[in-house]
Design goal:
The complex is a heterodimer of chains A (293) and B (280). Chain A is mostly helical and 293 residues long. Helix content of chain A is 73%, strand content 0%. In chain A, helix 1 crosses helix 12. Chain B is of the alpha/beta class. Chain B has a domain of 179 residues: Rossmann fold, CATH 3.40.50. The chains are: A mainly alpha (293), B alpha/beta (280). Chains A and B meet through helix 7 and helix 8 of A and helix 3, helix 4 and helix 7 of B.
């Protein structure tokens, strides 16, 4: 029996299979390397952080330096307030810009804005902190205050605006053009169907983008150093320096006290859980409710 | 001075017929020596056609001959693409659709459109119909009646009346297309453009749409583009045969006439070649 077109010399076949197996192994290895830091961080924080967690940790403000006990109540509140301010500013700006980029793609201004957004996304967050320090903190622009929770919120807003712009634009691009045509053919003006058909079709995706932005804002440290400054006391006034979980982790982690390091671990654990929770809840809620386009 | 005055008068009459939202149209479309360009590329050349009310006109021809483009110039969907230009004249009941004083919104409310692939909004069945009605300013208390009427006209009411709040996307392909027809009919247009409305549907769904077209013919001018000569033969009263210009690749009308005549005794050799399957 001579070879048919189906049969391949066994050496060739063996080599092909070997290369296939090798490549598969490479990709699995790469994946493992990629998730190792995540698993390591989560695991280590769980081990180190949970030990110091108790109700007092959530209900108390930091104790004076060197003393035992104390909590991060003011940091949790500060993070929530400043992330909230960031969303209030960034959601309208970011989502509307995203709509502009997606729906007016051919506009020359859109190209410029898209490029600018990419550049903004690439700017180191400490530089954003310096920027806000220069325009708000130094001139005491906000109600005569220097370092303030408001300035912190503005800095976080600048950080997450490009995220919201890009996610909104990308989600809106997934809305099929046939739906825009259908609405236009009914005699509905573009601005109208954009707001009443296109954006609602992509609502779950936009909401997911907003939540991812929130998670990002909650975790940022550098932009807050020069704007919110941090605060050892409980404060909800926007014109006063404000504490944040991320700042507390930074302060405690470099403090030369055993107690500080414990607090840092616990605070990091709380922060990560907060971010993880927001991520998981959003993905779950909006996955279920999203309409298949 | 006199010229300006005449121009104003033309504008006024245009406004009276097209701009006035309450005016009733007959649905008579005239196309006069119309040329259409995508940038520098000429896609349609010297189109002159009449689309009569109360009849179904089928536009047939090989792929790329400009059938869909012609259809889309009739309700100015071509406005949505950049760098397009229409020369010549297209009128609805005597009013120029491309006159400066005419709002494209009013054109599209008079001349509805159904597309090749069913494209319901990702909303409920009810909301698919009610959406356009609300934009048009129909009062909330009248919505239910209008929605039911439109669904009945499209022959969909009996199939969906008990699940109006479910998503339009949950329907079968044929039902989705009839939902799209109902959505267009709800706006009470004088003309309905259909761009290969059955090309994505199975034979039974196609049959239903064709029946529906014949029922609607009495009250609305229907212009349909179709790839299928059988379909043109089955549903249309008048057929327009289009071809691409051999040199310029611009679409042009070869022959138009009553469907029976065109299929049994074409006057142009090229029409005969096409319908007898010798090319295209």
């Amino acid at each position: 029996m001579s070879t048919t077109w189906l049969s391949v010399p066994s050496g060739t076949r063996r080599r092909r299979n070997a290369i296939s197996t090798f490549m598969l192994a490479l990709t699995v290895l790469a994946t493992l390397i990629a998730v190792t830091p995540l698993l390591f961080i989560l695991g280590w924080l769980l081990i180190q952080g949970v030990r110091y967690l108790n109700l007092d940790f959530f209900l108390n403000d930091p104790a004076p330096i060197g003393e035992a006990g104390g909590g991060v109540r003011n940091g949790i509140i500060g993070t929530l307030i400043m992330s909230g301010i960031a969303l209030l500013i960034a959601v309208p700006v970011g989502v509307l810009t995203g709509i502009f980029l997606a729906e007016y793609r051919g506009n020359p201004l859109a190209t410029v804005v898209r490029f600018a957004t990419d550049v903004l996304a690439g700017i180191p967050s400490i530089v954003v902190g310096i920027f806000v320090y220069t325009i708000i903190v130094l001139p005491r622009w906000f109600q005569g205050a220097a370092f303030s929770g408001f300035a912190g919120g503005v800095a976080l807003a600048v950080i997450i605006i490009p995220i919201l712009v890009r996610t909104t634009e990308e989600i809106l691009r997934l809305v099929p053009g046939s739906i825009r045509e259908a609405a236009a053919a009914l005699g509905v003006p573009k601005w109208d169907y954009t707001l009443t058909v296109v954006v609602p079709s992509a609502f779950s995706g936009i909401a997911t983008g907003i939540m991812l932005g929130l998670a990002r804002a909650a975790g940022e440290t550098a932009p807050l150093l020069l704007t919110a400054l941090g605060n050892n006391f409980y404060n909800t006034k926007l014109d006063q320096p404000m504490a944040a979980l991320s700042l507390q982790i930074f302060t405690y982690a470099i403090a030369p006290f055993e107690e500080g390091r414990r607090l840092a671990f616990a605070a990091a654990f709380v922060l990560i859980m907060l971010v993880l929770l927001v991520n998981i809840v959003t993905r779950y809620v909006f996955r279920v409710r999203s309409i298949n386009l | 001075m006199e010229l300006e005055l005449t121009y104003d008068r033309v504008q006024e009459s245009t406004q009276a017929a097209v701009g006035d939202r309450t005016a009733r149209c007959n649905g008579h479309i005239h196309v006069r020596d119309m040329h259409f360009y995508y940038g520098a590329f000429q896609a349609l050349r010297g189109i002159t056609l009449d689309f009569a009310p109360g009849a179904i006109t089928a536009i047939i021809g090989p792929s790329g001959c400009g059938k869909s483009t012609l259809l889309r110039t009739l309700n100015r969907m071509t406005d949505m693409q950049p760098n397009t230009r229409v020369e010549g004249m297209i009128t609805l009941d005597g009013s120029d659709l491309y006159a400066r004083s005419v709002d494209v919104v009013d054109v599209r409310r008079r001349i509805g459109m159904v597309f090749q692939r069913p494209n319901p909004f990702p909303k409920s069945i009810y909301e698919n119909i009610a959406y356009g009605l609300r934009r048009k300013g129909v009062a909330r208390r009248d919505l239910d009646g209008h929605v039911e009427q439109a669904l009945r006209k499209a022959g969909l009411w009996n199939e969906v009346s008990n699940r109006l709040q479910t998503s339009g996307l949950a329907l079968s392909g044929g039902q989705q297309q009839r939902l799209c027809i109902a959505r267009a009919l709800a706006m009470n247009p004088a003309v309905l453009l259909m761009d290969e409305p059955c090309s994505a549907l199975d034979p039974i769904a196609t049959l239903k749409i064709e029946e529906l077209m014949r029922e609607l013919r009495r009250e609305i001018t229907i212009i349909t583009v179709t790839h299928s000569m059988q379909q043109a033969g089955r549903v249309s009263d008048t057929t327009v045969f289009m071809l691409m210009d051999v040199n310029g690749r611009a679409g042009m009308v070869v022959e138009t006439g009553p469907t029976n005549d065109l299929f049994t005794a074409p006057r142009d050799q090229r029409t005969e070649d096409y319908i007898s399957g010798r090319f295209g």
